[in-house]
Each structure stands twice: as C-alpha cells, then as structure tokens.
Write a structure and sequence with these properties.
The complex is a heterodimer of chains A (112) and B (426). Chain A has 112 residues and is an alpha+beta fold. Chain A contains 2 helices and 6 strands; from the N terminus they run βαββββαβ. Chain B contains 14 helices and no strands. Classes of the chains: A alpha+beta (112), B mainly alpha (426). At the A-B interface, β3 and β4 of A face α8 and α10 of B.
C-alpha cells in the first residue's frame, strides 16, 4: 500500500477529485496549506506600500491506495492538476505499513 | 389656523432634526466598521470596544458639561424640556410666540431637546476620528480618559467660539471675521484630526511600520468588506450630518436648501472616491480600495464646510480635489513617519482644512482671511490642549502598550477576548 500526497493549486481541487473518482479512488483527505517552491512568493500593494507574500496558498491531498493503482493515481493527479505554468505543485509517494478501518477493525488492503 | 400651521412647522422641524441626529448617530457604526476593517484581526475587539465606549462617553460628557460650555445653559441639561418657558404649562405659548417672532420663513424654532440630541452626535463623530489614528498601539483606558476631556471640554470650547458665537477668550469673534463652517469640516472633522495628530506624535508608529532606511512597510487591514460597509454607512449618515445642519425643513426655501445639501453631499463623495482611485491607479499602478474609501470620505469632509451654496458640478469638483489631496496626504504623512492606520488625519484634518478654504468661492458671506483665522484657532486650541492632556495621561498611566503586548494584539491584552476565536485552533 502507498500514500500518495500531492500539493496542487487550489483551483484544481475539483478536477483532481473528479479524476480520482473516475479511477475508483474511494476517499481522499484535503488540507489547506501554504508554502513556496520555484514559484516563490509574490508582492502585493497596500496604500502605496509593497509587501511580500512569501508563502502561497496551496491544497494538499492525500490518498492511500493499493500498490496496483499507484501509477494510475499519479497520472490522474498529474493530468488533472497540470496547467503547464510554474507553481503546479508536486506529488510524493510514501510506503504505508498498515491501514485499519476504525468502524469494523478491517485491516490492510480491505481497509482501503 | 396660523397657530396650528406654526405648531406643525415646529413639529416638522423638530422631527427632521431628530431623524438627522439618528442618521449621524449611525455614523458611529460606520467608524466602527471602517476602523475594524483597516486594523489587523488581533486588534478587532479592542477597536470595537473603543468605538462603543467613546460614543457613550461623548453622550454622557456632553450632557454633563459639553453642551453647557458650547451653547450656554445649565449643566446636566436641567430644564431643557421647558424650551425656555417659565413652566411646563407655558411651553406651547412660549414656542408659538417665538415662532411668530421668527416668522414662517424665518429662523428655525425647534425643541431644545432635539438640539441637544443633534449636537451630541457631532461630538461623538469628532471623537471617533481619534480612535482610528491611534489604533493598534494605544492603551484602551488612556484613550477613554482622553475622550472624557475631549468631549467634555476641548471640543465644546472651540464649538462655543464657532457655532456658539462666543469670543475666543474674549479677544475676537470668528463670525465677525467672516468665518463660516456649515456642518463642521473644521469644527468637527479637523478638530478630531488635530486631537488625533497630537496623540499620534506622542504615541509613535506601530512596530514594524517604518524600516530603518526610511522604507514604509504595509500593514494590511484584516477585513476590507467591513471597511467598505463602514464607508457606505458613513456616506449615508453624512446626509444627516450636512442635511440636518440646515436646521430647518418647514418652508419652501429651507426644503430646497435641504435637497441641495443632500445632492451636493452625495456628489462630493462620488467625486472624491473616483478622483482618489484614479490617483492611486496612476501612482501605484493598482486600484487601491482603501484609497477609494478614503477618497469618498475626503469628498464628504470637504463639502461639509459648505454644502448649500455650490452648484452640483462645483460640489463634485470640490470632492474630487479632496480625493486627490487625500492620497498625497497619506503618502506624505507616511514619509514623515506619522503612522495613521486608517488615514483619519488626512481625511478629516487635511481635507477639513481644504473644505474651509473652499467656502469663500461659493459663499460671499465668508472670507479667506476669516477661514484661515478660524482654522488656525481651532487647530491651535485643539492640538495644544490635546497635546497637554495626552502628556498628562502619558505621565500618569502611560499611553502605549508594551512591545510584547502590541505583538500579541490589543484584543487579548485589553479585552481578554479575540474577535474570531474559532480560527485559533484552540
């Protein structure tokens, strides 16, 4: 099992959610996050004075899936979240040791 | 029949006065929202507390001493319900006699209680101007202590010299010199700004506002929808501020004057808003909303000195001059390191002065020299007296919170509660 974690542009969240549903992913976790990468921050203006916004708002989604569909999930997120412009985000994949469904006590792949 | 018509006129003029007073009272909500929108969220509860408390203090202090100092009469408004009559039974006949003497189209006759109500909300307006300029760093109770002196003594003194018609310390009478301030560009707005400037100079800038090499750092306001709502509330309340200052509605000439005042007040705000946003766009490359809001208020302040004599086009242009001036004034004050989070000194002080100086262009009864002497008198008195009072408060209890408290926010330090506690994750 793997945990796919992706940082994406917030306005792409709906597209990514739909793309994941289409390939059968049954649940995702979404967090509003801030940070910077190569896009860096940007400057804003208030009453004539410029100020720098260092950390840009992004959305982090996390999906735990079976090994078999990891590549599909990565492709789905990549295709849906891609605008071709700087700041589109990154996808991280981690190994997952164990998953337990709290309601039933099922574990492993059954709990996904 | 004549008596009944005069009674109706009295009732209408009193009613008009009261409704206009209620509109001006609502400006307290406008100032609250504008200021709460332009400070950081950690200072929201405190600025709202200040605004409600200063309004209440103004009402009480003007009742205790302010009205008596400004217009004569007794402290605590004792006997105000008699309207100058010897006893309650004689009120109607006394009012009718006064109305007949004034004539149907003559000077306004209205209830003395309505006069107090209309005047007291102006005091609160002047005091509201101070709270925005000293926001985010002044101790709550130091501010409220100042409010007591400002509304009970400092403002009523200059009000007595202007609208009250008294000589300035027995030396000269402003009215005789050709000074004219219809609804208070100088008497209310510039006075509030003068008190604010004295406070800001003693208080210093917010931490982090100005960098070591003279750079000006932005401290963005937390809630621009709230600031916009506040501006619209002020804009609406201003119809009472200027419209009520005609003092009479009940004959054709007065009704026409009221209509012209409403029209000019509105169009001056529109002119000020557009002039300010275009100026900001040309200077900064962006349409700065906060400058647009300040521009609308600048237009309103400018026209307040004389909204009845300009043509609609003149009123629009006067407002527009204020809108341009306010942007440059805000930039200049920042260069001088005079930190005013909401732009109150520029909007009410600089544009209040401009409003006074524009009066002689359309009102032949006023003179430039009279306006200059009046403005200098008001500023010198309010600034000087305020400076002394701020100094005393500073010596006794201090006026500024500690650096750590300023960082934590005034809400927790002074009020013990946050404005948006659910966002803290506790």
């Amino acid at each position: 099992m793997k945990l796919v974690s992706a940082i994406i542009k917030p306005f792409k969240l709906d597209d990514v959610r739909e793309a994941l549903s289409d390939i059968g992913v049954q649940g995702i976790t979404v967090t509003e996050v801030k940070g910077f990468g190569r896009q860096k921050g940007h400057t804003e203006l208030y009453r004539g004075a410029e100020y720098v916004v260092d950390f840009l708002p992004k959305v982090k989604i996390e999906v735990a899936v079976d090994n078999g569909i990891v590549d599909q999930v990565i492709d789905a997120v990549r295709n849906a979240a891609n605008t071709g412009k700087i700041g589109d985000g990154k996808i991280f994949v981690y190994p997952v040791e164990q998953v337990v469904r709290i309601r039933t006590g099922e574990s492993g792949v059954d709990a996904l | 029949m004549e008596n009944q018509i005069l009674e109706l006129q009295y009732a209408m003029d009193t009613f008009y006065f009261l409704v206009c007073g209620a509109l001006v009272m609502w400006m307290a909500a406008g100032f609250s929202m504008l200021e709460a929108g332009l400070v950081r969220s950690k200072n929201t509860t405190e600025i709202l507390t200040k605004n409600v408390a200063l309004f209440s203090i103004s009402c009480i202090m003007y009742l205790i001493s302010g009205y008596a100092i400004m217009y004569g009469g007794t402290a605590f408004l004792i006997g105000i319900e008699l309207d100058g009559a010897a006893s309650a039974d004689l009120v109607t006949s006394a009012v009718l006699a006064e109305s007949k003497e004034a004539g149907f189209a003559g000077g306004s006759v209205y209830s003395n209680a309505s006069d107090f109500f209309f005047q007291v909300v102006f005091v609160a307006t002047a005091m509201s101007i101070v709270s925005g300029a000293v926001a985010e760093r002044m101790k709550l109770w130091a501010f409220l202590a100042f409010a007591v002196v400002m509304t009970g003594f400092i403002y009523p003194m200059e009000g007595a010299w202007t609208w009250g018609g008294n000589a300035v310390f027995g030396m000269y009478t402003l009215g005789d010199l050709g000074f004219s301030d219809f609804a208070g560009s100088g008497i209310v707005h510039m006075a509030g700004a003068a008190a604010a400037l004295a406070g800001v100079l003693l208080l210093g800038a917010r931490k982090g506002k100005y960098g070591p090499d003279g750079q000006v750092n932005a401290i963005p306001g937390a809630n621009l929808p709230m600031a916009t709502l506040g501006t619209f509330i002020l804009w609406m309340g201003w119809f009472g501020f200027n419209g009520g200052s005609v003092l009479k509605l009940g004959d054709i000439a007065s009704a026409n004057s009221v209509a012209m005042v409403f029209l000019n007040t509105n169009t001056a705000a529109a002119g000020g808003a557009m002039a300010a946003v275009i100026t900001a766009r040309l200077l900064f490359g962006k349409a700065d909303l906060t400058m647009l809001l300040n521009g609308a208020l600048a237009g309103l302040v400018v026209i307040t000195a004389e909204p009845s004599t300009p043509t609609a086009l003149q009123a629009t242009l006067f407002g527009a001059i204020g809108g341009v001036l306010v942007v440059f004034s805000i930039i200049t004050l920042d260069k001088l390191k005079i930190d005013d989070p909401v732009g109150a000194i520029s909007v009410h002080g600089v544009c209040g002065l401009l409003g006074l100086l524009l009066v002689p262009l359309t009102n032949a009864d006023s003179s430039f020299s009279g306006q200059l002497i009046g403005a200098a008198t008001i500023f010198a008195w309010v600034f000087g007296a305020s400076f002394v009072v701020w100094m005393v408060i500073k010596a006794v209890m201090g006026i500024r919170v500690s650096e750590e408290d300023e960082y934590e926010g005034m809400d927790l330090v002074d009020c013990g509660m946050e404005a948006y506690p659910e966002f803290t994750g506790k």
